[in-house]
Prior knowledge:
The chain has 10 helices and 12 strands. With 307 residues, it is of the alpha+beta class. It folds into 2 domains: 4-157 and 290-306, Ribosomal Protein S5, domain 2 (2-Layer Sandwich); 163-286, Alpha-Beta Plaits. The strands form 2 sheets. Strands 1, 2, 3, 4, 5, 6, 11 and 12 form an 8-stranded mixed beta sheet that branches. It has a 4-stranded antiparallel beta sheet with strand order 8-9-7-10. The radius of gyration is 19 Å and the shape is globular. Bound molecules: adenosine-5'-diphosphate and the ligand N[C@@H](CCOP(=O)(O)O)C(=O)O. The site of adenosine-5'-diphosphate has 20 residues, from helix 1, strand 4 and helix 2. Residues 201-274 form the GHMP kinase C-terminal domain. Pathway: Amino-acid biosynthesis; L-threonine biosynthesis; L-threonine from L-aspartate: step 4/5.
Amino acid sequence: MSPLRITVPASSANIGPGFDSxxxxxSCFLILDVSxxxxxxxxxxxxxxxxxxxxxxxxxYQIARRTAEYHNKELxxxxxxxxxxxxxxxxxxxxxxxALAGIELANQLCDLNLxxxxxxxxxxxIEGHPDNIAPALFxxxxxxxxxxxxxxxxxxxxxxxxxxxxxxxxxxxxxxxxRRILPENYSRGQAARASSVGNLMIASLLQGDYQLAGRxxxxxxxxxxxxxxxxxxxxxxxxxxSQLGAYGSAISGAGPTMVSFxxxxxxxxxxxxxxxxxxxxxxxxxxxxxxxLQVERVNLQNTIVAE
Length: 307
Ligand SMILES: Nc1ncnc2c1ncn2[C@@H]1O[C@H](COP(=O)(O)OP(=O)(O)O)[C@@H](O)[C@H]1O
Ligand SMILES: N[C@@H](CCOP(=O)(O)O)C(=O)O
């Protein structure tokens, strides 16, 4: 096998009322550089990645092995260099991107010829969130639904023409913890109201009515009101970003990062102001990634030779 590079973008899930269903890929990447050798070796090139004792303990290896075993195959030994720009446990789908990278690693090493639907299904079964897995796989803004037989249905929302600004605090919030805060059940009235807001958000995004989409983003009642008390500066970020011209701001995934959705060209100006307001945050204008999961053949100098 010639050396290859697997690139997976991060994702910002929910976008307010699209709870567990909607997500957008963002230009912040997890990269695996893979080459065959006679024993397994996994190395981290980014210092924030979790430590591990043996390669068999590594999350990405475990997902790859599970995927290979599901197809009655054994992973051949290889060297994997892991580089990541995705902050962990901040609401940028780092675990979904890592799960997808593991699935693709098995796909490539064992010639599984997995379809996109299979990758989406496996990723969702393993990680639990199609609203992260679908954008990381396909790029762009994705809407998903899980059917009764656990198939993941999906559709891509073209565009959207928006600048995104991320506010990443220093503190982590594990997705599992942020889900425990949420109610187990919603009344019929609550569910109808919350899904009507979600429906109108998607319809307005499809029409390019970003003002209306922004108002719907900030009207979520599925998860944001319950999580807001655990998200530092939640109200301040919404208010200040709106005053600077953003259409709306939402908790990214389960938080604690927040993301503003703004008119094209507004990103750098909003980011500059918010950096002053939130000096302890990493404030970044980010782009929507439109490519999703990529596999490239590389030569020994890590130059891409073919897709
Ligand atoms: N590249 C990676 N390699 C190994 N483990 C990872 C990687 N990315 C994420 N993880 C695991 O996923 C956890 C974060 O997942 P989660 O709480 O769902 O937050 P999020 O997915 O929002 O970043 C990390 O603490 C780590 O255990
Ligand atoms: N819909 C999930 C999304 C979790 O995203 P993450 O990036 O925080 O892992 C939720 O809201 O719990």
